[in-house]
Amino acid sequence: MSFHExxxxxxxxxxxxxxxxxxxxxxxxLVELYRAGRLSDERLLQALxxxxxxxxxxxxxxxxxxxxxTMAEEWAEQLYRAIRxxxxxxxxxxxxxxx
Length: 99
What we know:
Number of helices: 4
Oligomer: single chain
Shape: elongated
Structural class: mainly alpha
Order of helices and strands: HHHH
Number of domains: 1
């Protein structure tokens, strides 16, 4: 699944437009830091886990924290893979431009 599709799916259930915008802005900021080489793979993944946990706690306030942590890790891994794939593609496009 693409990064944008994942973000849309992740935002399902977040009703407040401001919160949705803040989550999207935070994800975009993390992606830009990663693309610029200012965020390591490990730090990106950790930041994604923290963000995902915060969002999931908001979406599912009655769920057990351990279950939410597991869900957050799964979401973070998916987002990380999508960001990494998108970043690699963009780097290759700069290195090997089409003619």
